[in-house]
Every structure is written in C-alpha cells, then in structure tokens.
Amino acid sequence: MTSRTRIFRFVLCLCAVIALACPSFATQAEKQLGAGVSLFQDINTAAGSELIVNSVTIDPANPAVTLKAAVGKDTVLTDDPYKGRESISNLTARRGALIGVNADFFPFTGDPLGVCIIDGELVSEPDNHRCCLVVLKDHTLSFDNPVFDAKLTLSNGTSRQIDGINRERDTNQVVIYTQSFGAHTPSKYTGTEVVATSGDLPIKVGKSINLTVTEVRTDSRNTSIPKDGVIISSGSPAAYFLKENLKPGDKLSIQVGIKSTNKVDWSQVEQAVGGGPWLLKDGRQYIDGKSESFPDVFCTARHPRTAVGITADGKLMIVTVDGRQTISKGINLPDLASLMKKLGAVNAINLDGGGSTTLSYRGSIINSPSGGEQRQVADALLVFSDPIALPELPKLKLNLPQAEIAAGEGAQLYLTWGDDAQVLTPDQLKNVVWGTGNASGFVNQMGYLTPIKLRRGSVSAYYGSQIVSSDVKVIPGAPSNLDVVLIPDKTNQLKATATVTLTDVNGNPIAGKQVALVVTGGKADQDNGITNAKGEFTASITLDPNAAVKSVKASSGGLTASSDAKSHDAGTE
To answer: What top-level class would CATH report for the domain 3-33+387-475?
Structure first.
C-alpha cells in the first residue's frame, strides 16, 4: 500500500469517526467492559436539555464478578487534611477494580452517614431513616431501610444501648471504635473510653463479641485503638455508667443487630452502602424524601446524580447523570426514577450526588464531575472483573489534534497502531474505552473530547490490557460572559471600585483582553485596561456627589455589562 493510499484511507476513516463521535450526531454507545460488566452511554445535546447519562450493568451471578464496598484510604478517619476521604479514580485504581462509583453521603470526615459493611464487617451503622444497597453472601442484591439495634452487656447482666460504630460521638452516647476507624478515637469530646480486647472481631451483624477490659480512661480522647480490640467511648451520663461499672479484667459483650424493613437477613449481608431516598419500588416511582430526612428542594432540583438499581433478573445497574455544566444540566429525582425504569430497573435508590458523582473505569474518569475536579469521598461501590481479552495492537498510540485545546471546543481523538500508523477498524473501536484524568473535561465513548476547566490533565484509551494516554492542556474558550460590579468605599462615600470579570462559557477566566469603562456620575482612574490572569480588570472610581445616577458600563469585544453603586448588581447584556 502506498503512503498516499494510507493517508487517503486514514482521512476517510477519521472523517467517519468524527461524524459518529461528535455529540451532535451520535448520542449513544455500548461497550463490553469485562466479564459480566457492560456500559451504556446516552448523550442528549438538545438545547436546554443537555444530559450525559452513563449506565453500567453488572451480573453478580457471573463467577468473574465481585462487588465490594470500600471506604477511602481503607480507613474511616485519617489525620491528613482529607480525613479519610479519597477520590473515586484513585480508590478504583489503587484497589485494582474495573469500576468504581461514589456511594453514601458524608460530612467533612470520611465517615459514611449510613450503613457500610465490607466483607461482612460492620464499619458504619445505619442511619435509621435512609435506604441502602446490600449484597448478600449468595451474590443476590436487595435494598432496605435498616434500623440499628445494638447493646453492650456487662457480666452482671446490665445492658446499655450502643449508639454508633466508628463515627464522631456526641454527648451521652456510646460509640464503638474498631481498627477500621483509624489509629485513635476522635478528639471532639472527652469522655470515658474503655479499652478492651477480643478474639471475636471483626464486628458482624448477629454475632456476639466477647470483650475483656484492659483499661478504663476518664476524661479521655485520642485513645489508640488496639489491633486486637475496640474502644468503647462514652459521654456523660453514659460515661458515668461505664466508669462506675467497668475496671481492668472485667468481661462484657456487645451484640450488634440490624432490623430489616424489607425482609433482608442482615446476618447474610456481605457488602452494603448507604444512600437515599428510594426512587423505584416494584417498578413504580417511590420517592419519600421527607421520611429519609431529605428536603423537598433536594428531590425537585436538577443536580448531578448517582443511582443504583436492580433489574427483574437480578442484575445491578450503576447510573450517573452529570449536571451543573453547559454539556449536562443534571436531573431531579422524579425524572431520575423514570430514567432508571427506562434503563431496566424495577427497584432503585439514589446515592450521594452533586460534586461527588464520579464513575471510574480502571482509574480513569468516564463521566464529567461537576466541580471540574474530583471530590474526595467517604466510600464507594467497587466492581471487580477482568477486562475483555483482545489481541495486542503493537505500537498503539493516542493522537490529539493539537497540544492545547480550548475549553468548550470539541476535539476528536484517534488511535493508530503499527509502524505505518494504521487506524483502528470500526470493530476494534467498539472495544475502546475512553476516559480522562484529573477531570480535565469529558470524553465520550467514541473518543470525542470536550474540555471544560482550565488545567493540565490527560485522556486515556483502554484496549484490552493496553492503556495509552496523552497529556492535555485546556486553555480558555472564546469570551462569553462579562460582569462588572461597582462597590462603594465604606470609608469614603465619594470613592468606589469597579471590578470587571471576563469568562468563557464554562466560567474559565480569560486573560489578556481589552476592557473599556464608561462611568456615569463619576470618573475612573483608568477607563480601559487588560484583564489579568483571573480574567479581571479593576479601576478606582471617584464619584460626583451631585450626580443623580452613579453607574459604570464595561465592554469587551461584543460583550457589555453594567452596574450601579446603589444596587451593586451586575450582568451581561
């Protein structure tokens, strides 16, 4: 084959790929990710209804598939700034999972708010109002609204309720801390902390744990958690109960139970992650946010969402819907319920969403996180399976049209292989899984990249066991929004500051652009200038005390915006 023929064929194939991959043409893609695991991607580009949906279907009956819950950094709380939280892509890659997705809601620490069971161990107790996904020992799936029921019993038969497992303790509570929590108990409150050892750990639902007291510490916190034991931490008056009734050498036991509201045998639960609220029950929409302590606006507003569903034949569906972006507007819970039903679920629940919504394939991001970067989260649902086996393509290479790509302006990526840079056939391209690193943008499953936020990131293509990547630098897109704010000086009524901000359609600052100001009822110290690295131009204004109207109008290119000293309002006209 001549060089000219190869180039001609390459151009034809590339044009075909671009036509298929461009969001305005192709909206759907299906990929087999591994044994028992497949991906369906649906992209709606209709103006005002933009939506990116990723749905992963998993067959838990497939012997190659394993489902696991996981907490960030494999521990609830760490002493670093992330407090035990971890990004989904890092957690997925570190654990060697095929798929990872964010799970439960959480505070600023790494403690999931609801139930978390990992390999049968109760790591976090249920929130008694919220639903969860459970994976049983026989690999079947279910949803439930579990109710925590645990107690400690002294050798004399006296019992006391246990309020929590591996979480921050409030006053007059008893919380049990295990090695899964971290190195030591929290430091928020002092209290009585009982150190006890046991040969019956870890804590499992329905299993009695016999303990021997080795130390009783009063007015204590930050107590080291023994590898072969637990800390029973209590605040007054619960602290008084433990202090008066326990001493080194004493025996006691803890019994941890979970009551089901959906006929789940919790002694058979191997993995569990919390979420809420319900979306579907038996094929019908069922959203009761109030009973699960979610405000109405949480249910009715459009946000990025993560959900899980169970099909009629027992398969698991993991679904992400991106939002808060020009390329995907988000979804409310009633519409999410309808979507889950359309995709094939008969039962479904919502999980944490917003900036947490992240779907990872082998450590790469295949959705578009709303914050422009991944949020560090408390826990995740991981899917383990082997990637599909494919013949190796020698010298596989990922090609970008240019080294720098403007935010919001799409670019078709393409793969070549071999000494003569052959393009992949359509059948080969069906097996390529695309993703990004550092959330530099969104790449759909036909290799069409839409950069969003300014940063250096990467794009990756997976073909069987092969992984090829390329660095991407995202630069600002075309100017789209101009804002100006006129703020009076609090100490001098005749002075004010005008700040102009120029951004592209994705909110990225645009530097180096000329800005002009026209002041009514005053004079600027400079009536034109260049935007800085933050996309801003600032001028000092001297106001005329006799002027009835005091305002400023900014212009840059074809954009204009105005603001007055009284309202402080700004907006692009």
So the answer is: mainly beta
